[in-house]
Amino acid sequence: MRLLVAEDDPKLLKSLVHLFEINHYLVDGVDNGSDALEYALSGEYDGLVFDIMMPEIDGINVMKRLRKSGVTTPALFLSARTETYQRIEGLDAGADDYLPKPFSTAELLARVRAMLRRKDNFTPDMLEFGAISLNRSTYELICNGKSLSLSGKEFQVFEMMMQKPNMIVSTEQLITHIWGWDTSVDTSVVWVHISNIRKKLELLEAPIRIRFVRNAGYVLEAVV
Q1: pLDDT tens by residue, 151-166
Q2: d(C-alpha 33, C-alpha 53), whole Å
Q3: Cis bond leading into 165, ω under 30°?
Q4: Environment class of 50 (CB within 10 Å of its CB; exposed 0-12, middle 13-18, buried 19+)
């Protein structure tokens, strides 16, 4: 799946591109409305993620021009503008969804997945690793014909680990991914969610584990 991200804040643009790339999207990033319009008119993208307040052409007018030109690529607006009429303006311009800043990266990814379901080849609802499956629609862990539900935060933690099996995921990555860049959440909160997930894996008798790596993070791996 290929995304076009348009954001005039260089630090946030870099972070967004990195976030989508580590979640297996192909990403092009631009920092102004003129480039956003030119790139999007190519029709090469499965989804658009646009800031509203951009130099040269704002996101609202970019979207209006795209829809007038017949471009139907699903689009999500990001903006610090949070008044109801401002959201309505964005949706009326042709956007499919609107996410106010600041936002958690987990919610952003969920909104993008929902947006991309308009495409025939959207992100699958199931993640699998070994004998265990994670249903992204119902937040259920499934193994050996049994299932258990995860809480919202447990799901977000485990989804990230399922996307990176056998790789170290740092506590800092988990916090940023789930709670956002400006959160005051500390590492003990992550530990509690990891502990709860481990208990559910044990109840399912799943042949995988979450191993703690000192001074590094956590690894989801098969039990040999």
Answers
A1: 888 988 999 999 899 9
A2: 9
A3: no
A4: buried
